[in-house]
Amino acid sequence: MPHSTRPLHIAVVGGGIGGLALAVGLAKAQRDQTTPTFTFTVYEAAASFQEIGAGVGVGPNAYRTLTALGLGKEFGELAAKHQEQERHALDGVYFSWRQVLPHNVDASAGEDEICQTLREPGHLHATVHRAKFLNIMIAAVPPEVARFHKRLLSYSILNDGQVSLKFLDGTSALADVLVACDGIKSAVRPILLKGLLHDELLKPRFTGTVCYRALLPMAEMAPKLGAKAWYSTMYLGKNKHILTFPIDSGQTLNVVIFVSDRSIPNPTLPEGEAWIKDVSVEEMMAGFECWSEDCLTILKAVKNVKQPQQWRLHELHDLPTHAIGPCASSSAPRICTASTYLRGDQAAATLPHQGQGAAMAIESGYLLSTLLSHPLLTPETAPLALGAFAAQRHSRVTAIKNTSRALGEILEFSDPVILGDPGKLAQDLQGRYKWIWGWEPEEEAQKAKEVLEAELRRSA
Asked: Which residues form a coiled coil (predicted)?
């Protein structure tokens, strides 16, 4: 087929963790190429790059991928103070799960029972402030590629195969490839998948789980909670659990309180109802009256901070296999359905119970950047890179999503297998993360490049 002589141009819509990870990878590839074979632009709806949420957890898979993106040193410095505290005082503990032992309201609360503790002395684990983490990525993206106040309304495919983007401010832009990283309410996903999925399946699904968030001063909480304040801790109970972890170099304790209603098989929210709403302290505290002393200490501190907000957690329906590939829609061969993959974990396609939302966004951004920056890629063959990306990522991302949902059932004692066997709970938690944390970015990128190169040879 005839090929254009102009460079491939990539439009990245959305500048959260996923979009920035892709941009960092593309910028690094441009620096590494003597004559860059592509250009790219990042379109962000807000006035600046920003993320919702306070903390982000980074495990070995995400850390290795950040290193492959050239950000290992910067992230290591950000995480250093927390890591030093962990090594010094916590015997290498990274995560502890504790089963709440209910007590009589008239009796004193007891200690929680430890279900499982993870120690990972050879791996870097850290929980850091999300805004500071984002700043590391922003610094690695050339400022001239960013366009702000650009909320995508729609796109269309022109006769020459280019993608035309239409923005809310009345402007438009052209690209050879559009990668949607614009969040769970993506403008691209429903257009791309129209006709492939039922209309209801195009919309985010309310999971029946809500959460409440708070940031507490560590100087106040550490004396009350002891060493548990300095590592990630989950307090587990029926249809509820509480997660705490330190951020901001140990200055702040991030608290997330999860509450699930499993009485309705397919819960929904009224059309147009907000995903975040103010609630009373009484509503937030309901059902925790008999929880342990540590939990009540946390809850009392949370209710004193500010007006509680309830976050309704949503996820996206799985994409069918016929919607995955370089031509997910016959009319849109140059649109990557990366809105399903490239995102952080706040109100995202995957529930946050395994702490992998941000990691999936980073992994996907890295992998896609290695494919779209391939020196032999042209505007005409760009769909082949998207196909190689989808083939490499779909099974892992789907597995992360499904196992995260299943872990929510396990953590809140609603899984029928684990329910009556605490030993199985401990066994599940011990073995759950090995395959997740074992992802090797360079190996996976090489596999995807081999797939792409084989397709390029066939298309020549």
From this structure: none
- Whether the pLDDT of residue 189 is over 60: the answer is yes
- Which fold is adopted by the domain 8-50+130-203+332-459? FAD/NAD(P)-binding domain (3.50.50)
**Three-state secondary-structure class, residue 338:** helix
Question: Smallest Cα–Cα separation from 366: which of 27, 16, 5, 22?
Answer: 22
For 94, residues 6+ apart whose C-beta sits below 8 A from its C-beta are 86, 118, 119, 120, 125, 231, 232
Which two three-digit tokens encode residue 105? 């309201």
Q: pTM value?
A: 0.88
Span 229-261, pLDDT tens digits: 988 899 998 899 999 998 887 889 999 999 999
Three-state DSSP class for residue 168: coil
Q: Which two tokens stand for residue 14?
A: 């959305």
- Above 70 in pLDDT, residue 161? yes
Q: Please list the alpha-helical segments (H only) found in 288-356.
A: 293-303
CB atoms within 10 A of CB 186: 24
Tally of CB atoms within 10 A around 267 = 15
Instruction: Give me the residue spans of the domains in the chain.
Output: 8-50+130-203+332-459, 79-126+204-315
Please report the pLDDT score of residue 347 as a whole number: 29
**Is residue 276 classed as helix, strand or coil in its secondary structure?**
strand
CATH class of 79-126+204-315: alpha beta
Cβ-based burial of 121 (10 A; exposed 0-12, middle 13-18, buried ≥19): exposed
- The two three-digit tokens of residue 210, written as one number: 């809500």
> What does the alpha-carbon distance between residue 176 and residue 7 come to, in Å, rounded to a whole number?
9
pLDDT at 88 over 60: no
How many residues can be counted in the chain? 460
Same fold, 8-50+130-203+332-459 and 79-126+204-315: no
Radius of gyration of the CA atoms of the chain, in A: 23
